[in-house]
Design a protein that fits this description.
Largest sheet: 5 strands, mixed
Distance between the termini: 67 Å
Radius of gyration: 28 Å
Mean pLDDT: 89
Low-confidence stretches: none
Number of strands: 7
Shape: flat
Number of helices: 6
Helix content: 25-40%
Length: 241
């Protein structure tokens, strides 16, 4: 927050020596004050109501300027998603925290807000996947994930659920993608690679030596597989003479 001097402006005469002029410095004096607050803050506006005792007509005060039409604005949904998927705070834990601070925020409401917002930002999500596919180096791996309920194809005999992480690097930029479902890291990487531009050279895939990390690529799609040295030694591919 910028705070202007109450009495002086750029170019004014110096009040001390009365000979020179004062000029704004590049580095202002920093004054830091930190306060605590709830992750989501609620403001209650009590709009005065007046009722005519003859005709019953009701008159309500105007809403303050800047108050949007929605109870939950975009920043609320973004904060819930960041806490849940970026920081690992479960919906029920956030519900209890907000309740202790006097702000009701049921877990079901949080899910509905995140679900609605996810639909709005899906084009941005799809574009991140497309850009990640063009990377020079692709790292991938997966881990088991507990999901309470998931629809399965009747012909799918697999029972495991996994979260795959794919990190794409190119020109000093990193894009991290996460996929949770029945597919392993290699299968998810194969789906991502379908969007790679055909005129690009084969990227380097960096992963451990588990077979489920290696994608089964579509015809014409190539990748340079690179495993970490420790897994090469464990698998016996590199042997000492």
């Amino acid at each position: 927050m910028e705070v202007a001097h109450a009495d002086l402006a750029h170019g004014d005469r110096c009040p001390d020596c009365v000979r020179g002029n004062v000029y704004t410095q590049k580095e202002p004096k920093a004054l830091v004050r930190i306060v605590g607050q709830a992750p989501l803050v609620a403001t209650v506006y009590e709009l005065e109501k007046l009722r005519c005792n003859a005709c019953g007509q009701m008159f309500i005060a105007e809403e303050p300027e800047g108050v949007g039409p929605e109870k939950y604005d975009e920043t609320a949904a973004a904060m819930i998603a960041q806490l849940k998927y970026g920081s690992g705070v479960p919906f029920h834990r956030l519900e209890r925290m907000e309740e202790q601070l006097g702000i009701p925020l049921p877990a079901t409401t949080q899910w509905e807000l995140v679900e609605e917002t996810a639909a709005l930002i899906k084009p941005a999500h799809d574009e991140l996947i497309r850009q990640a596919t063009q990377g020079e180096v692709l790292h991938n791996d997966d881990t088991g994930m507990r999901v309470l309920e998931m629809e399965r194809d009747p012909s799918d005999e697999r029972t495991g659920v996994f979260t795959s992480g794919i990190v794409s690097t190119a020109s000093g930029r990193k894009i991290a993608l996460y996929f949770t479902g029945r597919q392993h890291a290699g299968e998810n990487l194969a789906d991502v690679m379908k969007q790679r531009a055909p005129d690009l050279s084969a990227p380097i895939q960096m992963c451990d030596a588990l077979s489920r990390n290696t994608p089964k690529l579509s015809p014409g799609v190539e990748i340079l597989l690179a495993n970490c040295l420790a897994h090469y030694l464990d698998s016996g591919i590199i042997q000492s003479e």
